[in-house]
Amino acid sequence: MPIPKKQSACDACELKNRRLVSNLTFISEVIERVVVEQLTKYLQENGLLPLVQTVQSAYRRHHSTETALLRMLSDIIAAADRQEVKLLCLLDLRALL
Asked: Which pTM value belongs to this model?
C-alpha cells in the first residue's frame, strides 16, 4: 500500500502524493535462499565441494564465526603443545573501501 509523502501538507488521497513500497528486497531474499539451498544440496550429493570446505565456516549450516574461531584457537593450542610456531595474519579489507 502506498505511503503518504507528507502527513499534513498534501492531500493523501491523490496517488502523486504517495510513495510506493517495493517488495523486491523480500522476494530476492527468498529466491536467494532457495537457490543456495538447492545448489548446496546438489554439490554435497555429487561430491563437488572442494576439500577446503571441511574447514570453511561461511555459508554452511551449523557453522559460524564462533566455530571458525574455535577451530583456529584449537590449532594454535595444538601447535604450542607440539612446540611449533604458528603465525596469524588478520586483514581488515573494509579499510580499503
From this structure: 0.43
